[in-house]
Each structure stands twice: as C-alpha cells, then as structure tokens.
Amino acid sequence: MPAWRRALNSPVRAYVEAARAVREAPRRPMAIASAVALVSLLAYATVRHFVGTSMVDMIVYRAEGAAVAHGRDLYALRVTEWNLPATYPPFAAMLFVPTTWFGIGFLRVAITAGNVALLGVLAALSFKLVGFPRRELRPVGVVLVAGLGVWLEPVFTTLRYGQINLALACLILWDLTRPDGHRGKGVAIGIAAGIKLTPGLFAVYLLITGRVRAAFTAGLTFLGTFLLGALVLPDATYGFWTKYLFDSTRVGKTVIVDNQSVRGAVARLLHTENPGLLATAAGAAVAIAGLAVAAWAYRSARWAPRAEAWGVCCAAVTAVLISPISWTHHWVWCVPVLVLLAAEAAHERSRPAAVRKARWRVILGVTLLGFLCFGMWVVPHKGDLDLHLPATHQLPASVYPLLGLCFLTVAALRVRSRRIAAGAPLVRLPRQRTADGTQQAPAAR
C-alpha cells in the first residue's frame, strides 16, 4: 500500500479501534466513570466561570495567524493588556492561520473542548506506552483522566490560557508509541519541534537509544518546517533564527514562580533575575544526567518492565527541566508520569502481603499531590516578591523542578536495583572482538 494511503487510513483505523474498545469496555465501570467525569467537568466549568479565563495565549496565536494572513511583521506584534509578543518559529504561526476564520468567543469554547479531548488522547497514548491497565479497562481510564485531569495544575493552566501543550505532547507520544521499524517514526516529533523547539530533545533521545533512522527522520522533518517557514516568511524566519530566538525577555522573566525550570529555581534561590553561569551549569548537568538515565532505562528492558515508558518519561521531564523557561503548563507530561507511577503502584499492590511494600504508592501519592497543590500560586509573588522569597517559600515556589529531579533519581535507583537483582552488569558493555575478528559478548559480573 502506498505511504500516502497508509497515512490516510491511519486515523480511520485508530477511530475504528477506539470505538471497538469503548463497546467492549465493561458497562458498569464505564457508566460510573462517565458520571464521575461529567460531574468533574461541570464543577470545572463552574469554577472557570467564576474565576475567569483570559485565554491570552490563544489570542496571541490568533494574532500570529492574522499577521501571516495579512502580511504583517510577525515579531513586531503586541497583543492583550500584557503586550505579549510572538515567540514561536514562523512555521507555528503559519499553522495558526485557521484560527483567524473564527471569532474569539467561538475559539474559547472550541479550544477548551479540543484540549479536554486531547487530554483523553494523551491518557490513551500513556496507557499504550506503559501497558497499563488491562486493555478492556483503558477506555474507562481515558474517561476518568479526561474528566478528573482538568484539576492537575499544568492541565488547568493549559486550559486557562488556551495553550497547545497537550497537542504537542500527543504528537510526541503518538510517535514514540509507534513500532521502531515504522518508516515514518520521527515525523511527528520533527513537526512538534518545528512548532516549539523543546520537543527536539526527543530526537536526541531516539538517537542515544539506538533508533538512528527515527532520529534522523525527526531532524529532517524539523529542517522541512524551517525551509517551509523560510519559503513563505523569509524575513520572519531570518529575524527569528538570528535575533528573536536568543532574546529571552520576549518570553518572560526567569525568576517568576510561573517558571518551573531548573534555571527558574536557581534564580529564585539566588534572588536574582539573571542566575548566570551557575544556572547554566546546573541545567547542563541535569541535561546530561537526565538523558543518561533515560537511555539507561530504555536499555534495561531485558531486566526491567516498562523500560520504554521510563525512558520516555525521563526524557520528557529532562526537557522541561532544562528549558530556560518552562511555564507551569509545560508540565502536562505529568499525565504519562502519573500513569507510569500508577502502574508501578498497581504491580506493587498485586504482590503477596508477606512481601508487599508501599514505596510506589507513596511515590505516586506525593507526585499526584505535587501536581494538584498549585503550590507556586499560593506563595506571595506579586510585584517583585519573586526576587525575595524566604527559604520557607522556596519549596512550593519550585515544586515541579523538585518533583522532576526526584523522578529522575527514582528512575535511576529503579534501574540499578533491577539490574542488581537480575545479576546483570550495571552498564551493558560493548561486545568484544576476538582474534579471528568475530564479536563475543562480555561475561556478566
């Protein structure tokens, strides 16, 4: 079958499979989950009505699309009362053009509904990645996550601002859950990187885990997005890649509690808007360590279940940790992380009572609480208070970086313990060449 026909058939096949899974799901749990999700979403709609949602990022996206459609200077625009500029590559602005066909009122409803649906898609992809729960229960899980997941702070904020984080996460996770031998693997990651550069780290993850073709496919696709932007918007492309990309002031202040990256945490600890070399060194150390743990987890599949899921989640957490600015809504990767920890907790719960422990259930509970607590918003931070946070406020102000670093540490300890328990080398050694030129596997130590 030609590649173009396979591409057209893929969404149809996915829809048919999803419909079949819903029909085959147990009726009583599905009915209960649907009722719980409906009540949760109605409560969310009520809270949203009284709290108010500006959806400022959606307005920026629409303005970017209008600038492309009408030939205006993309990076000179300023919109909303906060004078927000365009910060994404020109390719992303081109994708936003269809938003100009509708009014803002319609877009508020459509993008909110679309993001709730994408939350369900992200849950389904997370279940597929982790291999949990049982296949017939996954539609029940999707409904519950779509209904209850809106209360996770990163998701709540994504909906509040009309952000595209859930769409990018779905693109990346869909790509990573495809078979390694699939010719198109890497394309979706390349497109996501063309929209918002941070997803490019997943191409690095593919490369260091030995999936070279997929990594190069992602890289070539990203190059294609650059060339398309240069062809349609040459001046904007030149400006973005030579000037605006390096102007962090366009994105926001590093020190504010909204920024849940390592650099933001260091800036608040040092009480400075420019944390300088120390923050750069900390980010580089986390990047190296995080990618090393991700690759180590992936290459431990022989001894540890859910190895790919651990690798992907470690790469995702590393990406948001090392970005100079990671707003709270960038942490929507908490969804697959929580699914993965739930799988570990369920496996732990299934053990005989005599050997059962509660480690994973505690880790799951603490992580879930961290993403539900809205801790950074409780800390007084109006005006310049971000620069003067006392020691007692540092933990809630940087709760996501702390959770991310703890997650990477737990992942490394898990891989180590699994390898030791199996009597395997802590690091897989390369095959050694014998005198006759053949390769021989090293003995386990």
Description of the molecule:
This protein is an all-alpha fold and 445 residues long. The protein contains 20 helices and 2 strands. It has a two-stranded antiparallel sheet. Helix 5 (104-130) runs antiparallel to helix 7 (153-161), helix 11 crosses helix 12 (234-242) and helix 15 runs antiparallel to helix 20. The longest helix has 27 residues, at 104-130. It is globular and about 65 Å long.
Separate helix tally = 20
Give unreliable regions as ranges: 429-445
Query: How confident is the prediction overall: mean pLDDT?
Result: 89
Would you report the number of β strands? 2
Find the structural class using helix and strand composition. mainly alpha
Strand order of the largest sheet: 1-2
Main beta sheet: strand number and arrangement? Answer: 2 strands, antiparallel
Spatial shape: globular
Strand portion, in percent? under 5%
N-to-C terminal Cα separation, in Å? 48 Å
Helix content: 55-70%
Radius of gyration: 23 Å
Series of H and E elements: HHHHHHHHHHHHHHHHHHHHEE
